[in-house]
Amino acid sequence: MNRDESEPPDEALGRRLASELPRYRAPAHVRAAIRRAARGREAAWLLPALSALATAAVFTLVLLATLPATTPEDVVQELVDAVVAEHSRALMWGARRAELTPAGTRLMEESGIRLDKAFLGDDRLTFLGAEPVYLAWRRGVALHYVDPDGRHVTYVALHAPGLPLPERQRMQVDGFRPALVKSAGFGAWVWKHGDVGCFLVSDIISAAELGRFKDYFVRVRAGTEPIVY
Amino acid sequence: VPTPEFERECLVHLDALYNFAMYLTRNPPAADDLVQETYLRAFRFAHRFQPGTHLRAWLFQILRNTFLTFYRVGEREVAVAEDGVPDWDVPMFHDAPDDTALVSDAHTDLERALARLPEEFRSVLLLAEVEGMPLEDVARIMGCPVGTVKSRIFRAKERLRGLLRDYETR
User: Fold this and answer.
1) Is A169 left (phi over 0), alpha (psi -120 to 50) or beta?
2) Residue B86: CA count within 13 A, CB half-sphere
């Protein structure tokens, strides 16, 4: 029952676990983010000054309390509205300065998002191009696709740390749990990738076509990994 | 406010915590989030850390509690055995590819077999055998008595051996 010498096979398995299991090292961006958080806390001398500001903030909060509250649904809806507008623009006029390489330096510099892995299309979705976007005061990147029926699908990744997903709209899709949010006749899958809010927009939202939209989501979700640059 | 020394000591354990997070979530972006959240909580609650106790165990405890809180393992309606461990495999992380896909991504039979263990079994093995922690620390992290830890290690190894035998005979 315990780990003493009376059970050698247990010890051998224990040694095997210790020696054979791969060890994962923290990526540099995680280390850097934690250091930044620590540095932020080191600025403790700011606290007295901030407390004065906080007093002023109390008065503001009293005022804000009389205004309608913002819910997670509102935040996500605002972003989805902006992403749908961008998708509509691309539908009508095409990408502004589309790049064919989502890992392009200009794209990274302008969007502040690096795509460690990007879905470049397959037998169902053809990749049209990538471009930096600025939506709802957030920088990001958009990838455009079209399916064999000519239906356009747009993937958008935006800086959105702490984006709250509306729990009631989340659905189980092949092991993932994105939220499905609708706006102006379009549908958007919404999910998070670290500090990045991800959206996949299309007009494929009827009940009959939801299976196809789910399939596109899985292809793009599994094939794309954005991180804040 | 945590001291710079405290923060530096915390960072010494970053790789070990990340490794644990990877085996818990089996998903790199989720492991990133989990580790960052763990450190934010550690810095925020530094005043609760008792100097002289094991910082490493404290950090692992925060990480595991954060994992359980975020992914609401407790809400799963599963039948549990006497030592609190479900008797079958269930996905632990609800916004990640399911176990089958992840398990097929594993590099070795051992990693694949470990990924199939319930979280309570996987954690005790990782903490006791991979990280080499004393059983008392493992018990503190898992929030159960030392006797339960021993029992889980025994059962985890038993099940792991069975899974490894299955792989070898395929």
Assistant:
1) alpha
2) 17
Q: Which two tokens stand for residue A60?
A: 């503001």
Summarize the confidence of residues B18-38 as an average pLDDT.
90
Cβ partners under 8 Å of residue B132, min gap 6: A18
Residues 101-160 of B with CB under 8 A from A: 101, 107-108, 110-111, 114, 125-126, 128-130, 132, 135, 150-151, 153-154, 157, 160
Q: From the list A20, A41, A191, which residue is nearest B110 (CB)?
A: A20
Predicted local distance difference test score (pLDDT) of residue A104: 66
DSSP H stretches of helix in B26-125: 28-44, 55-71, 99-105, 109-115, 119-125
Residue B128 CB partners (closer than 8 Å, separation 6+): A3, A14, B135, B138, B149, B153
B94 touches chain A (CB under 8 A): yes
How many residues belong to chain A?
Answer: 229
> Between these two residues, A10 and A188, which has the higher pLDDT value?
A188
Count of beta carbons in the 10 Å neighbourhood of residue B81: 12
Confidence of residue B87 (pLDDT cuts 50, 70, 90): very low
pLDDT per residue over A7-23, tens digit each?
456 788 888 899 889 99
